[in-house]
Structure formats: C-alpha cells, structure tokens
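A quick aside before the break. I want you to see a complete sequence-to-structure record at least once, exactly as it would be stored in a machine-readable document. Don't worry about memorizing anything.
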Amino acid sequence: MRRALGRTNFAGDPVTLAQGPAWVGGVALGTLLAADPVAAAAVAVPGAVGLVDDLVGDRSTKGIRGHLGALRRGRVTSGAVKVAVLGATALVVAVVEHDRDAPLTSRLPALVVDAGVVAGTANLLNLFDLRPGRALKVAALIGAPLLVAAPGRARPALVAGLAATAAALPGDLAGRSMLGDCGANAAGALVGQGVVRSLPLAGRAGVLAAVTALTLASERVSFSRVIDRTPALRALDAWGRPTPAPVSPVTP
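That is the input. The structure line, written in tokens, reads:
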C-alpha cells in the first residue's frame, strides 16, 4: 500500500498520501472517544471512499464535467462512485442531525441544504489539495471560527479535526506528504458537518451557495492561478513553506 500511495507533486518531488489515512484515523478515534459516532462516520466513510480512489482511481478523468461525460458514454468512474457515496453519506448525516419527529415537509428544505453543504465541502476541499499545506489551511481557516460558534456537542469533533490538521501541517508544508482524496474528502466533510451544527439555516444556505459557486468555477478557472495573482492569497498560501535555496551561479 505504501508504494500505491506514492505520488509526484506539482514540483516533481515524491510525496506520500499516507497522511490522509493517518488524519482520518486520528479524527475518527478522537470523535469516538468523545462519544460522537455521527462525526466519526462523517469522517470515516468519505475517507474510505477517498482512499479507494487514491489507490485504484482513474486519474485521467478530472472534475465533475469529466465524470459526467464518462457516465454519458456508459463508463462509471471511481470518481463518480465517490460522488454518489459522498452524497448518500451527506444525506444520512443531515437526517441524523435533525429532529426526526418533525414532519418531513418541514424538514425537507434544511435536509437538502445540509446534505449539499456536507457533500459540497467534502468535494471542494479536495480541489485545494494541489499545493503544500493549502487544503489544511483552508480546513483550519473554516474550522477555527466554527469552533467559536459551535454548540458544545459539536466542539469535540472540530477540536479533533484541528488537532489532526496541526499535526499534519508540517509534513504537508515541507512537501513530504499530502492529504489525497482520503484526507481531503474527510476533512471537508467534517467542516461541512461543523457548518450544519453551528449555523442557522440562512447561514448554511449561504455556505452552500458559496461552495456551489466555487465548485462550478473550478471547472473553468485555476484556483492556483487566481491565488498566485492575488498578493494576499499568495502570501497566505506560501506561509510556512520552506523558502527555496538560492541557486549559486556557475563559475567557469
């Protein structure tokens, strides 16, 4: 498995995706110890399906458009299966988080929004896992404010996620490891569940709109290019990465 989790990053350097299963395992254990099995499942299932995609996924098909195009041609990609599993998991999480004694008609709008938030953030965070530390920074920048807004029952899962993120960040920033689909999908799902547990319906709908817009934009716009062209984002993105050593001039 170690060899199967080996990759070459954007700079052509070898990295390992083993960080993803380690992140998922740590957070799942932490949430179980905190007696939060729903959060554990919200992390473990996306992590498992992401790991399968990391190990045997078709890397030639990218993006929602690519997977939908493959489906139209009668080919089911591992990415399409992953999207279906993420959607089903998000729906189950949304149902469990709501008062099941209330009539379905009154719960339906919130269920749709919440399932969309969990599935959407699980997918979106994976789109940021393209440069050292980027996906982990996005998860932390969303998770930390949620920790302040979250009710007591939601905090242990967020604390577990932030702790695992802090532990994984040095290796990711150094370019030695990556979350991969396993870790990024799981981290995104945990963030999405934090949103569902912490914000009112209007706030969750706003998050869903933003996630949807960013996901659709990713089909046409390079996030890396936008970040590189925006000084504040570029500085935040580069924070913590080792500074490349200057190249000494070659003397004859």
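Two observations worth writing down. DSSP finds eleven helices and two strands in the chain. Residues 104-127 form the longest helix (24 residues). We'll return to this after the break.
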